[in-house]
Write a structure and sequence with these properties.
Elements (H helix, E strand, L loop, with lengths): L6 E5 L4 H9 L3 E6 L4 H4 L2 E5 L5 H8 L5 E4 L7 H10 L7 H7 L2 H10 L7 E2 L8 E8 L9 E4 L11 E5 L4 E10 L2 E12 L11 E6 L5 H18 L3 E10 L2 E8 L6 H7 L1 H4 L5 H11 L14 E8 L4 E2 L2 H8 L4 E2 L7 E2 L4 E9 L2 H17 L3
Length: 380
């Protein structure tokens, strides 16, 4: 068992949510990400990098951490993950696991062999209709911005080395979050995914946030838990991971596997799902699983939890964050991922994240709307 006063390094496109979870559990946090937001700097020694490259490795090698973990984006850089793992103890999945579990064709084969629902996938568009019933996806993509319907307009961008195609499944987009160790997995919870299409529907599947926890019927929950166990067993997953999918009746269609800390975990922690599992935070769950092979002993109670949600607010036009605006956001419990004063925000990129809790899904959505409107009003 590690000393909670030791340094924990968190690396990813945005480390803030995971860093705050670690900080709440008592760790000293170092962070390397693409933004170095003000609320991250408030709790962690922070390094900003422009992209995942040799500079990321150099920054991480300077750390005095006991161990490190990654958030979004790093799953697409298995070679970099392995190089970082040679410098510091990795709490999570090595490159070989990433390559296997991020292979949509192997996933489809494994799911089909186990009798689980799985969308069809193809390497090339030959013979496919161009009516949007199939999706064009990057093999190395995250956040949903890379996913577009397969139409005549999309055909010009197809690259057999970088893309594949997946049959489109209609229903409610959801995410299931798990923690895994020793070939077993525990379901942490499920959330509904909120989409944030850009103007003109250029990115119809862009991730816009999460709301939950969902309360699936027993048949659906059992199916999702079976899916998690299969992934943990067949791919030797360790620690936290997520499955993006679509709920269609009592069927859960897995769409993509994210073998690391996922954004929806913040919502589950806000709602109390992690406390029900007997843990202080999602990162405590992750470290216990990776360092000690320990999964939660507690079984979630039947007590209904409050609802919680997060929404990524994207800029409609280019913006500059003034010092008064940044300070107002830092002082608000409803705003996270706060840019440092003076930041220039390009159009169609994230400004910040708004958070809310409530007694119902509708109340949380209304509070997210209010928080977003207040955030925009600061620029007037």
């Amino acid at each position: 068992m590690m000393d909670r006063s030791a340094n924990l390094l968190i690396l990813g496109a945005s480390a803030r949510a995971a860093a705050q979870a670690a900080h709440r559990s008592g760790w000293q946090v170092e962070a390397i990400d693409l933004f170095a937001d003000a609320d991250l700097q408030a709790i962690a020694r922070c390094t900003r990098v422009g992209r995942f490259s040799a500079s990321t490795l150099a920054a991480a090698q300077k750390s005095s951490c006991w161990g490190w973990l990654y958030t979004g984006g790093l799953e697409n850089y298995p070679r970099l993950v392995d190089r970082l793992a040679r410098a510091h103890r990795l709490l999570g999945n090595h490159g070989a696991v990433l390559r296997a579990v991020r292979d949509p064709f192997r996933l489809a084969q494994e799911f089909a062999a186990a009798g689980l629902a799985v969308p069809e996938v193809q390497r090339a568009p030959s013979g496919l209709p161009r009516d949007g019933s199939w999706l064009l996806k990057l093999v190395r993509g995250s956040g949903g911005s890379h996913v577009v319907p397969w139409t005549a307009a999309a055909e010009a961008s197809f690259d057999a080395r970088r893309h594949y195609l997946q049959r489109r499944i209609t229903g409610k987009p959801c995410s299931a979050a798990f923690v895994a160790a020793g070939g077993r997995a525990c379901l942490v919870g499920m959330t509904e995914q909120l989409l944030a299409p850009s103007p003109g529907e250029g990115t119809p599947f862009r991730y816009g946030g999460s709301i939950g926890p969902l309360r699936p019927p027993e048949t659906l929950r059992t199916s999702v838990e079976r899916l998690g166990h299969l992934l943990a067993e067949r791919f030797s997953l360790q620690g936290l991971f997520g499955v993006d999918g679509v709920v269609q009746g009592d069927t859960y269609w897995p769409i993509e596997i994210n073998p690391r800390y996922v954004a929806s975990l913040e919502v589950l922690e806000m709602a109390g799902s992690v406390r029900q599992l007997g843990s202080t935070s999602t990162i405590a769950l992750h470290v216990d699983a990776c360092a000690d092979g320990k999964l939660p002993d507690a079984v979630p109670s039947t007590v209904e939890l409050p609802w919680a949600g997060k929404r990524i607010v994207y800029a409609a036009s280019a913006l500059r964050v003034s010092s008064p605006v940044a300070q107002a956001w830092l002082e608000s419990a409803q705003v996270a991922d706060v840019p440092v004063a003076g930041s220039e925000i390009a159009a169609e990129t994230p400004i910040a994240t708004v958070l809310a809790t409530g007694s119902s899904r509708q109340q949380v959505l209304e509070r997210l709307d209010q928080a977003q409107a207040w955030l925009y009003a600061q620029f007037r």
